[in-house]
């Protein structure tokens, strides 16, 4: 099912990029030899890498079109936008738990699916790529949910703010910066998700 665009309010923000820490205590060691689980991991590692590539392509478009290329130059504007971060701490903490990490990846992908509506408005000439990215995010989220069900893993629900409407950007420049940070944050989110899946594949 399509995710309401209102989830943008949950994630138009900077994921605070904590240094990657060694993952400990993953509960899926007993599944490391499971062929279906390994197939899921390797297939979705490739899928995640593909999505990262599409996000990078859109980041280049934003850089070329709006000359918005360096995050450090836009931090003050980001504050004006009231941006909040997308949680993914369960995937890079020392208390790593696969159920919690999968749940956060699943929920985050659904949220980014919605937030990309703002990028679609910003880059109408690249609608096909943005729509493909939305579809891929939805499909990866569904893959993870299905795998959790197949493994009998419990879905962990984290308290979040209620979904709100898409923010009204006060200017076209703020819309451009908002799109820049959606993509930058999504790229970091995907990098963390990729590392978590890779970690499980190496157990």
From TrEMBL:
GO terms for molecular function: cytokine activity; granulocyte colony-stimulating factor receptor binding; growth factor activity. InterPro entries: 4_helix_cytokine-like_core, GCSF/MGF, IL-6/GCSF/MGF, IL6/GCSF/MGF_CS. One of its GO terms (biological process) is positive regulation of myeloid cell differentiation. Residues 1-25 form the signal peptide. It is found in: Secreted. GO terms for cellular component: extracellular region. Pfam families: GCSF (PF16647). Its main location: secreted. The keyword Secreted applies. Keywords: Disulfide bond, Glycoprotein, Growth factor, Secreted, Signal. The keyword NAD does not apply. Belongs to the IL-6 superfamily. This is MGF factor. It comes from Pygoscelis papua (Gentoo penguin).
